[in-house]
Specification:
CATH superfamily: NAD(P)-binding Rossmann-like Domain
CATH topology: Rossmann fold
Radius of gyration: 17 Å
Largest sheet: 3 strands, parallel
Structural class: mainly alpha
Distance between the termini: 23 Å
Number of strands: 3
Order of helices and strands: HEHEHHEHH
Oligomer: single chain
Strand content: 5-15%
């Protein structure tokens, strides 16, 4: 539940705490979800669910605040080249650099885009509508080796980071 509390509760709690300031100043909210808001990565089901929740929350918030002058933007980055994504990149997954993410994101902000989908996030959103079974299967194939055999249905973390129990 920690991942849910941080990724979802943190966004909602922060927005709620600042809503009066945002509305009185006609501010801007920028929430960060992920391209995985559209299609789950089977190796990271909880993470994917949190990003889908933020996507839904942000869309709803945009409607709720549309008459207040508050702009609600969502950044949906794809996999970004970091220490966290090393195994994904080594396994043949597509990642973009932080420089490329920033470049694409600022270009979209300048155009007034409310849902910013840099890099592969555009394709994930499109394929989730056009061929959801296909893209879900492709993500499973790409991430399958990241899922330890003993915990395939429950956790995205490597076995050495898991708490194990025996019956």
């Amino acid at each position: 539940m920690t991942e849910m509390n941080i990724n979802v509760g943190g966004v909602i709690g922060t927005t709620s705490a600042l809503i009066d300031v945002l509305t009185s100043n006609k501010g801007t909210v920028i929430n960060v979800s992920s391209g995985l808001a559209f299609v789950p990565l089977p190796a990271a089901p909880i993470y994917s669910a949190t990003k889908a929740a933020i996507h839904s929350y942000t869309q709803s918030l945009r409607f709720q605040l549309e008459e207040t002058g508050v702009e609600v933007i969502e950044l949906m980055p794809p996999a970004v080249k970091t220490e966290m994504t090393t195994e994904l990149a080594e396994g043949g997954g597509t990642v973009i650099t932080t420089d490329e993410l920033v470049k694409q994101s600022f270009a979209s902000l300048k155009k007034g885009v409310l849902e910013i989908r840099p890099g592969q996030s555009k394709q994930l959103a499109f394929l989730s509508r056009l061929a959801p079974d296909f893209i879900n299967r492709q993500l499973w194939k790409a991430s399958k080796k990241l899922v330890p055999v003993a915990v395939k249905a429950t956790s995205p973390w490597p076995a050495e980071k898991q708490a194990t129990t025996t019956a």
